[in-house]
Amino acid sequence: MQNFLTSIRKIIGAIGHFLAPFFHFVGPYWLGFWHGVRRIWRRYLLTRWVLLGLMLIFLGFSTYLTFLAKTSDVEHLKANLQTTTTIYDHDQQKAGSLYAQKGTYVSYNKISPQIQNAVTSTEDRTFWTNPGFSIKGYARAAVSYVIHHGQISGGGSTLTQQLAKNALLTQQQTLIRKAEELFLSIEITKVYSKQDIITMYLNNAYFGNGVWGVQDAAEKYFGKSAAEIDTAEAASMAAMLRSPSFYNPIDHPNYNISRRNLILGLMVDNDKLTTSQATAAKQEALNLQDNYNSTDGYRYPYYFDAVINEAISKYGLTEEEIMNKGYKIYTALNQTYQQQMTASFADSSVFPANAADGTQVEGASVAMDPQNGGVTAVVGGRNATPVFRGYNRATQIKRQPGSTMKPLAVYTPALENGYHYDSELTDKKMSYGANHYTPTDYGDNYQGKVPMYSALAQSLNVPAVWLLDQIGVQKGVAAVKDFGITLPKSDQNLAMALGGLNIGVSPYQMAGAYATFANQGQRPTSHFITKIVDASGNVIVDNTETKTKRVMSAKTAKEMNSMMLGVFDYGTGTSAKPSGYDVAGKTGSTEVPDSYGFGTKDQWVVGYTPDVVVATWIGYDSTDSSHFLQGISEEGVAKVWKSEMENILPNTDGTKFSTKDAKTRASAEQTTNSANVWDQVKNGAAKAKANLDSAAGNAKSWVDSVKGLFGQ
To answer: Which residue intervals define the domain Glycosyl transferase family in the entry (predicted)?
Structure first.
């Protein structure tokens, strides 16, 4: 070690010796520069200016935070906490409520004094006397900030500050957020009494196991109201505020008892209990009893989740605002449709069998009003009790649409560019482009020529690709974009005719696209929310005006309806057709590798009447050789979609299509044309006979005239 230190000293000495000429040269200049700075600093009194600048910055920051506090709707905090955000359906009838952070609100006199004593002794000993913040608490937080090298580690917050954080701010641990918390707590203290503040805090606190508020927590853990809680139980409840998951007595009774006993000691220190009272309470066992019944406010979880997501992504609200501010959210929800769609998804008999390892086939569906784009029902999976704001396949999946893309990318732009519903399309196996892209029909059977309506109804691949090649890929890309689906460059090729996309689509997107056909060529803007009103009655979102975009002519829409009626009358969707109803739309599926066997990865039916569009997908979340759909699309998703439509359609207006299916029309036109030809033949024969008769009469008259001449 001594030799090592000696070596280090030698190295440092050598470096110093090497740099000595540099320091010798630079030294005088550095001293001159420093003396110049000192003269300027003293001459212009820069210390005072720096202090003035810091004071102005502090004043400006304080003014900004005061402004935030004054405009944070503190006056309505109590009303917002008491009022639950309510969801209304398309008839403005209450459909449920968003209670994720709302328990049963109880008044101050219905909360046991022991709960208040336990909480204040633990969380804020000077609560009843402090101005909403604690100087000692901030001093401790500052020391912690230094010790943890600039990281906010929590602590130092009074009950008032915690209320401000939970009800008005995010959970971020930053200096700015801590400063906002301080100013808001001061404002809250000005507006509300201490009794109001502790009541709001306890009603807004989280106690674990999905329970918010002191009243529901008392019922959940001890089977009694908050007013009936005794000293030991109060300390157990206060213990959960530190970490609801770690200290709740159901999951971790020993941890709860340990912290409970600590809190009982703090209550003695805070003169809320005598030593003998605390000792007696520590001897009590945990007598747990669960009498908590959660409300059924969150009745339609997939729909309500989608409403929250739209409010956040489209209208800039936060989850905390939506949950805690008592909004009235009006939606396009049709409760009857929603209940019927949910019932279909609850019927396992309409879904394919589970995989060998028990993994079930998943599914998702969206029902939409084609006139205004409002989502009337949605199911995002087969889980009957999905987690709050969990995975919603109806709006969030991106899966290949298969042949449901053909009407969007091929047949609509073809009609718009001069083709007719009965135009002859080429159905011959051929290759395209430098990569020799070669689509095939099912069974490798080809007809040579096929009318467009038959190619669509039978979901033939080769004619669809041939037609897209004829009209041009970019016309297809533009059409798909008009339908509300933007394709990346990598998907702008002939394969898009068959739905072979790298980035897929959701049922929500497909329902919005097909609503265009049912709405005479105009695509409505898809949405869940129609209006949001705050607790004071102010309209903060107004989406009641229907917005549409013209995608195709009404004539083209009618032709597309005619062709897609054939899908369910004689095409690939016959097994999905609901009994007694005319529906139009398209089926679709995507293939799995040949090594898997005979089956598909994704199966779709997107169908509609003039009253409702329903887009349904089924498949496995993760597809592999053990998890794929056996058979073709008619054998899987058809049953699900048929069940949904047979449940929903009896509740619609029953509006009829203004056209017949294309095959019937083509047959009628052919019969009419044949009749016209025969009529023309008969008319021609009659006219010829008349001409002959006329000619014969003229000839007889001429002969008689000649005879008369000779007779004279």
So the answer is: 97-267
